[in-house]
Specification:
single chain; alpha+beta; CBS-domain; 3-stranded antiparallel beta sheet; 6 strands; CBS domain; CBS_dom_sf
């Protein structure tokens, strides 16, 4: 996936009216929440991405996991090869709508200290990811 750089330009009319849909990456790899951490790390490596969208058994996006999060879980003292993504995801979210302004999405990402934000439609299906450039 390509990354998107968010630049704060409060004086720019373009930045004020730009939405997440204008700059998000397409959905990319989506995995089910019953996938194990080891398999998820393998999928991530094969897809050459730093994060995966996680969906429940009905296909709705419930969150996003990053490589660092998976690695930390794997390296933890309570880790076993049976740990699933649902075990480390927590509450999931936050999410963005495609009509969310870039200013609002940037604020959420900064406040939550996120490198990537899932973009979902009104039904909760994953549409894409808003990712910070590295």
């Amino acid at each position: 996936m390509t990354s998107v750089q968010i630049q704060a330009r409060s004086t720019s009319a373009t930045a004020v009216h730009s939405t997440v849909a204008d700059v998000m990456d397409t959905a990319g790899p989506q995995v089910c929440d019953d996938m194990t951490v080891e398999v998820a790390l393998s999928v991530m490596a094969a897809a050459r991405t730093g994060h995966l969208l996680v969906c429940d058994d009905s296909g709705l996006c419930i969150g996003l996991v990053a490589r660092a999060q998976l690695t930390a879980a794997r390296d933890g003292s309570s880790y076993s090869d049976r740990v699933q993504l649902r075990d480390i995801l927590g509450e999931g979210g936050p999410f963005a709508s495609p009509v969310t302004s870039m200013a609002e999405a940037g604020h959420v990402m900064r406040f939550s200290r996120l490198d990537a934000l899932p973009v979902v439609d009104e039904h909760g299906s994953a549409l894409g990811v808003l990712a910070l450039a590295r």
